[in-house]
Specification:
It contains 2 helices and no strands. It is mostly helical.
């Protein structure tokens, strides 16, 4: 936490924590509803997010 506070104030830490939580929730919903990747996010090396474990 000390390393985060070197770079960010408390408001920014709260905001990024909320964004991470939202992305995690979205991922869980997409997985539960079997939503297929739309190809918006390309990983280094040309792989898509759909190639990650749990996203088949």
């Amino acid at each position: 936490m000390a390393r985060l506070k070197e770079q960010f104030d408390d408001d920014a830490i709260v905001e990024i924590t909320g964004l991470i939580a939202f992305q995690n929730m979205s991922s869980e919903f997409n997985s539960a509803l079997a939503v297929t990747p739309q190809g918006f996010c390309q990983m280094p090396g040309g792989a898509s997010v759909g190639g990650l474990v749990g996203m088949e």
